[in-house]
């Protein structure tokens, strides 16, 4: 489709200088020159891609010519080759454009052509696109935004709605709001810091960092059935070298903490950690986690004691930025992690989605009979 017509190209727009027979280049649906053609796999009849999409949207999946069932394929090469030799007059010739372009360059030109009409967002006057920049500089009704105070106003309102006094007042109000938010964030961090210091001073803790697992530098590996006295279900791990080599665009790469373990654990679905006998309960103090592929991923953490839910906490994880999640859950025997939601981080559209990287787990210092060995299937 052209940028404006949304259908085939009229034969009248084919330049007379073109020495190409176009009789076989007609779309069987719109009867105009083929535009971005596709073809029927069985009979190889070409159609405009837009015409074919409309045909299929309003009918069963049948070929417009002779076939019972339509299966799409690329247009035959000889057709696209002939089309590429055509010279086409710009759609905006009536507005003054004198460009005659190769078939393949037409779409880009018509999107940018200065001879198409545009409407001024201020005075609503229609004019050629090429004249809009000059008009915008002088139009009294064009909306403007102050880069200092972010106030929106029209040019002719500058002396009434955007005076220097108003601008300074708006800036001061914004700075006060930012200061208030910053103070709140600092207070929150100070509270977390005091909690962490208190916990480290009053509790014998074990920080699980996965540093002593068998190397996963070549392939992703599943967590051992029993590790550090816990049973791990649907949790895997990887080495930093593997993350850099195979998942360089992911948040895994930046989830490795400087001077810490060369392994991180990760999960992409509901996963669990549970205590192994003879121990009956443990305390989960905190975890460090981040999102591996998505922005604003939600992680729901649920704690159980004898199959009864006793605690739950949900947090929004940042992409590739490990954050400490303070829990302080005591006397539990199982933890369930459930990742969900979020949107693909820029450049990670082909990633697996809601994956969570676990960098550390901090628990109370239990005397675990199985903490010194790993058990594999």
TrEMBL record:
Keyword Zinc: yes
Domain RING-type: 27-66
Gene3D superfamilies: Zinc/RING finger domain, C3HC4 (zinc finger)
InterPro entries: Znf_C3HC4_RING-type, Znf_RING, Znf_RING/FYVE/PHD
Organism the protein comes from: Adineta steineri
Record key words, sorted: Metal-binding, Zinc, Zinc-finger
Top-rank taxon, per record: Eukaryota
One Gene Ontology molecular-function label: zinc ion binding
Name of the protein in question: RING-type domain-containing protein
